[in-house]
Design a protein that fits this description.
InterPro entries: NAD(P)-bd_dom_sf, SDR_fam. The chain is an alpha/beta fold and about 280 residues long. The chain has 9 helices and 7 strands; from the N terminus they run E-H-E-H-E-H-E-H-E-H-E-H-H-H-E-H. The chain has a single domain, classed as NAD(P)-binding Rossmann-like Domain (Rossmann fold). The mean pLDDT is about 95. It binds nicotinamide-adenine-dinucleotide. The site of nicotinamide-adenine-dinucleotide (NAD) has 30 residues, from helix 1, helix 4 and helix 6.
């Protein structure tokens, strides 16, 4: 699905980071965007940025907590009231979990990550996909992570929920394509992206506030991606009808290592071992 001036997109977690990058990429292509976020106070600056850049598209803001089914239903109603249709549903809102081994992670952490990252995506699917099916066209773009393709030790609630989003999206894509070739789903699995995910997760109480001055990730990891690079890669994958998109230097290698290990364990050899 290509983004045109007719496209209406909704983006959860859209006030910051990858979500804001996606919103920018859609309005720059002429589409309309409903930017949604749990942080109501972050929406005005995001809208000013999107509507003040001379882009052909426009953005409106709606506050919603994706872990609440009623909020996501209301978001779908607001989108339909404002634009009369929805074409691209970006279930992107997310948090990071504290760094510690699986057995030390608090039940509250597991609960929060599952409610936001898994149930949040499920609520997005339940509230919006019936509109896509009724229209006979549209696409779901779910943000997971490279941690959805390969394990990230020390972040088991994050890894667990991101794997769930990958499996959910692959299944959804099959179900949608069985109805129409104009329907589909894509999962975005980036490596490290230059966003305030840690600071926002701390503000929302998911992790402790980092001590000391803010870390300049660009100086530590010059290969870090910008949100806009990730957004453009995601929209290219949506246009091409690809189910997976995984921008970032080492993501393909990490996914390859996991697939090799999986096949070695279950059939005794990795694809690379085949003669
Ligand atoms: N930054 C990275 O390196 C990276 C890498 C791979 C995947 N991701 C994933 O990308 C997604 C976006 O993260 P980001 O890096 O852009 O961080 P970000 O903090 O800049 O954006 C996430 C947004 O989600 C919002 N949010 C959090 N909980 C919410 C809720 N319950 N309801 C609605 N909105 C909520 C936050 O307020 C924030 O604006 C997340 O799912 C994250 O796990 C990030």
């Amino acid at each position: 699905m290509n983004i045109t001036s007719e496209t209406v997109a909704v983006i959860t977690g859209g006030a910051s980071g990858i979500g804001l990058g996606l919103a920018e990429a859609v309005v720059d292509r002429g589409g309309s965007v409903v930017v949604s976020d749990i942080r109501h106070d972050a929406l005005p600056a995001a809208l000013e940025h999107l509507n003040g850049r001379g882009a052909p598209g426009r953005a409106i803001g709606v506050r919603a907590d994706v872990s609440e089914a009623a909020d996501v239903d209301a978001l779908a109603s607001s989108t339909m009231e404002a634009f009369g249709r929805v074409d691209l549903v970006c279930n992107n809102a997310g948090l990071v979990s504290p760094a510690m081994p699986a057995w030390e992670q608090e039940p509250a952490t597991w609960d929060r990550m599952i409610r936001v990252k898994v149930m949040g995506v499920i609520h997005g699917i339940r509230s919006f996909v019936p509109h896509l099916v009724a229209q006979g066209s549209g696409h779901v773009l779910n943000t997971a992570s490279s941690a959805g393709l390969a394990p990230l030790a020390g972040r088991s609630p994050y890894t667990t929920t991101m794997h769930a989003v990958v499996g959910l999206t692959e299944t959804l894509d099959i179900e949608l394509r069985a109805i129409s070739g104009a329907l589909g789903a894509t999962v975005l699995c980036p490596g490290l992206v230059d966003t305030p995910l840690g600071a926002n997760s701390a503000t929302l109480g998911a992790i402790s506030a980092p001590s000391g001055p803010p870390v300049d990730m660009r100086s530590l990891r010059p290969d870090i991606l910008s949100p806009r690079q990730v957004a453009d890669a995601a929209l290219e994958a949506v246009a091409a009808g690809r189910v997976h998109v995984a921008p970032g230097g080492d993501v393909a290698e990490r996914a390859q290592a996991r697939v090799d290990l999986l096949l070695r364990d279950i059939i005794g050899r990795a694809p690379a071992d085949r003669g």
